[in-house]
Amino acid sequence: MSMDRRGFLKTSLLGCSAAASPFLTPVSFAAAPWDARLVVIILRGAMDGLDAVQPWGAPEYAGYRPGMPRPGDASGPLDLGGFYAMHGALAPLKPMWDKGELGFVQAVSTPYRNKRSHFDGQDILEAGAMVNGQPVRDGWLNRMLQGVPGIEADTAYAVGRSDMLLMRGDAPVANWAPGSDIGGWSAQGMRLLEQVMHDDPLFRDALDEAELLSDADQADQDPETMTGGMMNMTEMSAPAKKAAPTGGHRAIARYAGERLRGDSRIAAFSLNGWDTHAGQKAALSRALGRLSDVIEDLKSSTGPVVWGKTAVVVMTEFGRTVRLNGTRGTDHGTGGAMILAGGALRGGRVAGKWPGLGEAELYNRRDLMPTADVREYAAWMMRDLFGLSRGALEGTIFPGLEMSANPKLIL
């Protein structure tokens, strides 16, 4: 087997430095700096975990959510073993559940409490740490990359138009978007627009739809005409054109999958449309349908070999209220759910400690009580995927985190 000079130097560097790195426990590298893949998807707007992963085994649930279809109803939720059922919009993913390639974690949250601001909650989720109550300035995925030898720009991709705090920091990260921002808006401008429109459901939903349509329209363009990113645009043409007819969210998923089939090992992007204050039944069905598309496209575009080495973690800034409000929606809450997927996953189960839905068991008598830190599950996944040391995870990547027993999410 031949090896070029660059490959020899990279392998030699890893061999000399990996053992000395405080970030890594002993591990064999099949590719620099590892062969496993990680995809992080941020759901902006706060997914209702009690609707995505429905606890029908809790006797109070039906009373809190009157009129919801039950497991066994046409287009209703799919039973996951008696206590939980997953939303019917996720039905295309049921074969993954059956194969152990899909799982959930219930009753998780960041340390953020009570203020219930999407923008603060998202910053804390992506920063992964706080100082004096404020999120730090770099993201936890980038801090992880900073401590690992052999990192290059192609190792990790931030995909989509969002300026992701999750990937911000000193480590090199490539960026790609299917098109320019709506009307030439910068990432900061879009964030301001989202803040201004947040409290008006009509304008907020219209903005979410416009962003999706913009992605879909821009994905039809030849990527050589686009701006931004750290990669040669001509290298993007094939995957982007292949994904173009399917819409913005699918273009992003398929592009990420194509990169993961090559030298890239990490991809991160976000999906909007999860703020369901009114008309949640239709809005959440649409959002979960898009997420289902994304996960299916990640699997198909990576291919069976790479998918078998891939873990997908889907996170959101907080949960939503247990009770429906007067407009058949839910308001900002606390405890929520994670969605996990991938061929590297030990799935087919709902992890996490269930807190109960009795009045006294709720957080502030309105929200699902968090029983675990969402960062802990992400940390254990990186520990088992990449061989990162527990000391680095608790001390540098997620400062202040205390990891309990390994939930063994990875094969």
Automatic annotation (TrEMBL):
InterPro entries: DUF1501 (IPR010869), TAT_signal (IPR006311). Coiled coil: none annotated. Residues 1-30 form the signal peptide. Keywords: Signal. This is DUF1501 domain-containing protein. It comes from Rhodalgimonas zhirmunskyi. The lineage of its organism: Bacteria, Pseudomonadati, Pseudomonadota, Alphaproteobacteria, Rhodobacterales.
